[in-house]
Amino acid sequence: MKHMNSEVKEERTSNKKRIDLFLVPIVLIAAFLNLFKIWTDEYANAYYTAAVKSMLQSFHNFFYASFDPGGYVTIDKPPVVFWIQTISAKIFGFHGWSVILPQALAGIGSVLLLYVLVKRTFGVWAGRFAALAMALTPIVPAVSRTNNIDSMLVFTLLVATWMLFRAVRTAKFGWVLAAFAMIGVAFNMKMLQAYMVLPAFYVFYVVATKINWKKKIAFLTTATALMLAVSVSWAVVVDSTSADKRPYMGSSQTNSVLELAFGYNGINRLTGNTSVTGSSHKQAAQTEQQTASSETKQNSNSSADSSQSSNQRKSSSSQKMQAPGGGNQNGMFNTGNPGPFRLFQKGLSDQISWLLPFVIFSIVGLFAGVKFKGSYTTKQKESLFWLAWLLPVAVFFSIAGFFHQYYLIMLAPPIAAFAGAGAVALWSMYKQHNGWKSWLLPGGILTTAALQIYIMSPYVSSIGVAPIAGVGAPGVILALVLAVRKQRKNSLTNYLGAAAMVVLLAMPAYWAMTPIIYGGNSMLPSAGPDSSSGMGGPPSTPTNSKQSGFNGMQPPGSSSGNSSSTNQMQPPSGSSNGGQIPGGSSNNGQMQPPSGSSNSVQMPNSFSNKSSSSKRKSGGMNAEVNQKLLNYLTKNNTGEKYLFATTDSTSAAPYIIKTGKPVMAMGGFSGSDPILTVSKLKAMIKKGEVKYFYLSGMGKGGQSDVITWIKENSKEIPSSKWQSTSSSAQQGPPGNGTLYEITLK
Question: ∠ CA(373), CA(375), CA(377), 5° rounding?
Answer without folding.
Answer: 130
